[in-house]
tRNA modification GTPase MnmE (Stieleria varia), 442 residues
Amino acid sequence: MIESCKHESRPDCNSIECCRLTGDGRSAVAVVALRDRLQSSDNVHRLIAACFQSASATPMKADQIRYGVWTGPPEQHKEQHSEATHSAATKPGGSVTHGESVVVLPLDRGRMEIHCHGGQAAVGRILDDLAALGCQIVSSIEVLADEFATDGDSSETGRLVREALEVLIRCPTQRTAAIALDQVRGGMTRWAIDSRTRLRSDRDAWGEVSEQAVAILRHANVGLHLVSPFDVVLAGPPNVGKSSLLNAVIGYDRAITMDQPGTTRDVLSCETVIDGWPIRFRDTAGLHEGGESIEREGMRRAQSAIAEADLVVAVRQAQDGSPPPTSDSLAWLESSTVAALRPLPILHVLNKVDLLAGSPDLRKQTDVLYTVATTAVGIPELMAKIIARLVPQPPSTGEPVPLNRRQRDCLETIARAKNSTESGFAEVDTALTRLLGLDEPV
Ligand SMILES: Nc1nc2c(ncn2[C@@H]2O[C@H](COP(=O)(O)OP(=O)(O)OP(=O)(O)O)[C@@H](O)[C@H]2O)c(=O)[nH]1
Ligand SMILES: [Mg+2]
């Protein structure tokens, strides 16, 4: 039986801010955070009492969760403001029969969380109701940035922490989130502040700071792929087993495979996670000379995919004898226009080794992986090799990792200073200031 604890008077919500704390996508549970700028718990409790029917009549205490039903603001408020249409139905006796089932978590300093169903409708309704009562809807980054701020924080910590929070809330895996969280907790900020402070007391330290930036930049590629997946393209001649390899790696039949060349015509994408790293695989049409117009268009698309890839898995079919694995048999890739644009990051795979009569020497080659896509032989090794190529050196806990192009550009400026024949102090100091966001008007 749900006890009513409604206050009929309209609560004063002018100082209350709220936001959706969890990411924008659909999830099992979403969290709406409330906080009173004056840190008044009374204010927030009055607001909750107006919109929430607790299942228990005992007074709320900080850190004690409370189950109940979100009924929304009293009807008179809703009529004034609202597009909110989900008012709770009330039985003749006064008890609420339905509304949004929620869990409310009172916290200290005028903060409160509402945990509700993770669909857009439930969160949208709660935020609409809160806005209708006069609460201000703010960005979750603002709320989180304050939560992570520590004593003595100043504008110096602001920009990098905010940028890290923006990445953190969009990270798709625990592994990537851990790296972003490290930056929220000050990985990059500490390095930048310490380096700047040191530089200002010892102008000759710029060379060392510049060397450190070079080391940090090793993680730039990882930092830029915490949210958007690495792009791995399977390419090679027709019928060698590219689509079969894709299916074997992701564990289900995403692509059609057939014993005839030209099965895959278009670029086919699919996202997965290997070892905590988000990866988008792209299967492509077999590359070969000539072909009808639709095949040529498929090959053109394959070439574009190759040109953008973080890693190209170059698949060929194992043959008896000793096909040179990484040189002339790759003419189809190397002669392609895209290869001229940049050195291609290639991982060589010889598939269908089960068809070999036996070429033991071939298997000794270390720069090529051998697979049987149809029986998953060599697939774990292929997955491990893909990760080793994409993330050769994962960042250690707490290490600074640049999370966006802006941060990377600042670090590249600092790193370039090491080649300077003259003093690079000014260059490094300016770039550190920019990295910290201290060049912007407050
Ligand atoms: N024996 C053997 N057959 C394989 C292996 N891998 C794939 N096949 C078969 O080879 C044929 C071609 O496989 P696909 O995966 O469609 O080849 P593809 O490279 O994607 O071909 P296109 O899309 O035409 O470029 C299919 O009949 C697969 O079952 C393997 O390791 N061993
Ligand atoms: Mg195919």
Notes: The first helix runs from residue 41 to 51.
